[in-house]
Specification:
Layout (H helix, E strand, L loop, with lengths): L1 E6 L8 H14 L3 E4 L32 H10 L5 E8 L5 H14 L4 E6 L4 H7 L6 H17 L5 E2 L4 E2 L16 E4 L3 H10 L2 E3 L12 H6 L13 H13 L4 E4 L6 H19 L2
Parallel strand pairs: 1-2, 1-9, 2-3, 3-4, 4-7, 7-8
Antiparallel strand pairs: 5-6
């Protein structure tokens, strides 16, 4: 099992020094990757329901604070050595396709091939409107963008013609270090997300706390059934190590965790404890 630390670009992670301290602590503790969330702007009057909270409330709705995901990952690449860096997930239609492909390629080059592209279609209708991005057709736009990314990253004379993306007569360099391109993980729990995973991706990357399809126990994740078991990665350190073993047994290779902490000191303490009491024990 490979463990990742899931981070939000706000709160404890809202300053340079704090984000750097957490990233370096995760690297020391034996985490394999660091995941970074994605929002560009938050509408002042948000009506969309957040699909990963029982109340439908998005935690950043009150203040709107969010660092840009790709710029943050580029920063983290410069202050870590071993950790892989996961876009968790990139809301694909938010940014122009060619610009996004260039930013991802640049990060992969400067991180020496440590980027993982988590990709999703997004959920916040008002954010799409503010960015001038297509919400109603976001699934089709995401598919075209992913096709365009692969074209730009792998072809010497890339060209693409679609409803949302079109280009030709372009020199696109540098290509990503990872070949044929950075790994793609598709986020989401819907049938469309699973189809997109089969079509494009190296892995399926669902959330465990979806309110429409909870995947918060090994049995639910394996079979999509309801149950009353303890939620994954709660309880004692021994419970969490057992969760890792249970997930491995059903074919899960990576898990990203939010460990919390109201201060950077508390966050680092939790990271260090998880590393010593869970990660180290699963690798003996």
């Amino acid at each position: 099992m490979k463990f990742g630390l899931s981070t939000l670009t706000r709160g404890v992670f809202s300053t340079r020094d704090n984000y750097m301290a957490v990233a370096k602590a995760a690297e020391r503790a034996g985490f394999d990757f660091l995941a970074v969330s994605d929002h560009l702007v938050v509408p002042a009057n948000l009506k969309s329901q957040y699909p990963y909270d029982a109340r439908g409330v998005f935690a950043a709705a009150e203040h709107g604070y969010c660092l840009d995901q790709l710029a943050t990952i580029a920063f983290l690449a410069g202050c870590t050595v071993r950790l892989r860096l996961l876009a968790s997930v990139l809301v694909v239609p938010h940014r122009p396709a060619m610009l996004t492909a260039k930013m991802i390629s640049t990060i992969d080059v400067l991180s020496n091939g440590r980027l993982i592209l988590g990709a999703g279609t997004g959920w916040m209708k008002e954010e799409f409107a503010l960015l001038g991005a297509p919400f109603a057709d976001r699934g089709k736009a995401t598919d075209e963008y992913l096709e365009a990314f692969r074209e730009l990253w792998t072809k010497d004379a890339p060209a693409y013609s679609g409803k949302h993306v079109s280009f030709s007569d372009v020199l696109f360099y540098p290509k990503p270090i990872q070949k044929p391109h950075p790994p793609m993980w598709i986020g989401g729990e819907s049938p469309a997300a699973l189809r997109r995973t089969i079509r494009f991706a190296d892995a399926w990357y669902p959330g465990n706390n979806s309110q429409t399809k909870p995947l918060d126990t090994p049995s639910r994740l394996a079979a999509g059934i309801d149950g009353s078991a303890r939620r994954l990665f709660t309880g004692t350190s021994a419970d969490m190590a057992a969760d890792a073993e249970a997930l491995s047994s059903i074919g899960v290779g990576h898990v990203a965790l939010r460990l919390g902490g109201d201060t950077v000191e508390a966050s680092v303490e939790r990271i260090e404890r998880f590393g010593a009491e869970v990660i180290a024990k699963t690798r003996r």
